[in-house]
Automatic annotation (TrEMBL):
Organism of derivation: Globisporangium ultimum (strain ATCC 200006 / CBS 805.95 / DAOM BR144)
A GO molecular-function annotation: glucosylceramidase activity
Protein name, UniProt field: Glycosyl hydrolase family 30 TIM-barrel domain-containing protein
Cited Pfam families: Glyco_hydro_30 (PF02055), Glyco_hydro_30C (PF17189)
Gene3D superfamilies found in the cross-reference section: Glycosidases, Golgi alpha-mannosidase II
GO cellular component: membrane
Glycosyl hydrolase family 30 TIM-barrel domain span: 109-283
Keyword Signal: yes
């Protein structure tokens, strides 16, 4: 079975603006809405020490016959939650779907963001209280509950300078290897990762990615479009392997276990063009940050699809329009989680046939994404 991993590369790499359990937790909606960046976005939610929205967890207590619906839309909804009662499909619908649990596809590894230097530097420009609100927004039970994190090995294109963990030329034994740069007060990258692990109530799979070897290992003496010196298996290649091993061991000693690793960032032509649209924006004054639409879009998936969730077949029986997307998963807890994305400028109505052949109707507002959750009893597998 193939696995699915989604990382929002800049979900934790913020852009600094040059302008000034089953227990239900307290939830607040966005009470500080701003039309800032209105030229490009439908506004942002402003978070301060006094006010910052959170996400409801009441879907965990859904009863048989109930459906939980989370909606974000161009009209202004941001992970707005409501419970609807399953009823029979109406006479007039635009689309009909069927839940086909007999056909399974990928298994989810996780959703998350990258712990770049930019992420740490800009987070630590906020007040301590706001720093924790950022971490809560991504990793807590009332946040997006990110389940993975990507850690650059030394510098990346989201660093203030180019550096490595061992700049000493031809130190093949890595005698001078050190991750102290990640601990430095002008970085705080390691501290941010450790705080994220403490904030989350669930395990976070951390994986590392290398942008480039130390410059002295490269033919070009550069980290740009570079190649390792010598033939594979030679002294520089062995030194690079040891360099990676030292990194994993050093982070483990700091309480950060590396689950996986990629030896190169963007090694080939990507299937999906990378995006550098960040989910949070901050001000250099450090008194507030802004949640952009991307933040909520990521949350529609990351919060409700824990590791081990499996995508299954969700075919159309009738489709009046072609610009309504959908997908379906079943979680390890046997909840059915559906996603609808209406790209139209008008509302639509859809019916969904459950495994027990009963159907229900859902409304799909214009320009909206919805996460629809059915309790374990609906899957017939509970």
């Amino acid at each position: 079975m193939r696995s699915l991993y989604l990382v929002s590369t800049l979900a934790l790499s913020f852009l600094v603006q040059l302008a000034a359990g089953t227990e239900e937790l307290a939830v607040t909606t966005c009470s500080n809405w701003s039309t800032r960046y209105q030229k490009y976005l439908e506004g942002v939610c402003v978070c301060t020490e006094a006010n910052c929205d959170s996400v409801a967890n009441t879907y965990t207590s859904l009863k048989a016959g109930e459906i939980g619906v989370y909606r974000s839309s161009k009209a202004g909804d941001r992970l707005k939650y409501e419970v609807i009662t399953i009823n029979k499909a109406g006479a007039t619908v635009d689309i009909e779907f069927t839940l086909n649990l007999a056909q399974m596809y990928q298994q989810v590894i996780g959703f998350g963001g990258a712990f770049t230097d930019a992420a740490a530097i800009n987070t630590y420009k906020l007040t301590p209280a706001l720093q924790q609100k950022v971490l809560d927004a991504y990793f807590s039970e009332t946040g997006l509950e990110y389940s993975t994190g990507r850690i650059p090995i030394s510098s990346s294109d989201f660093s203030e300078s180019i550096y490595s963990y061992n700049p000493v030329v031809d130190d093949f034994n890595m005698t001078h290897f050190s991750i102290d740069v990640d601990k430095a007060p002008n970085s705080n990258k390691l501290a941010l990762i450790q705080r994220a692990l403490k904030t989350s109530t669930k395990p976070i799979k951390m994986f590392a990615s290398s942008w480039a070897p130390p410059v002295w290992m490269t033919q070009e003496n550069s980290t740009l479009n570079c190649h390792v010196k010598g033939a594979a298996g030679g002294p520089y290649w062995k030194a690079l392997a040891l360099y990676y091993s030292k990194f994993i061991d050093a982070y483990k000693a700091e309480g950060v276990n590396i689950w996986g690793m990629t030896v190169q960032n963007e090694p080939g032509k990507p299937i999906i063009q990378p995006s550098v649209w960040q989910s949070l924006r901050m001000t250099v004054g450090g008194k507030e940050f802004y949640k952009q639409p991307m933040y909520y879009i990521m949350g529609h998936f990351s919060k409700f699809l824990p590791a081990g969730s499996i995508r299954f077949d969700f075919p159309k029986a009738k489709d009046k329009w072609s610009d309504i997307d959908r997908t379906a998963f079943i979680t390890p807890e046997k909840r059915i989680v559906l996603f609808f994305f209406n790209r139209r400028d008008s509302d639509a109505t859809a019916t969904v046939q459950q495994p027990d052949k009963n159907t229900f109707t859902v409304s799909l507002p214009a320009r909206s994404i919805q996460t629809i959750i059915l309790p374990p009893s609906a899957s017939g597998l509970a």
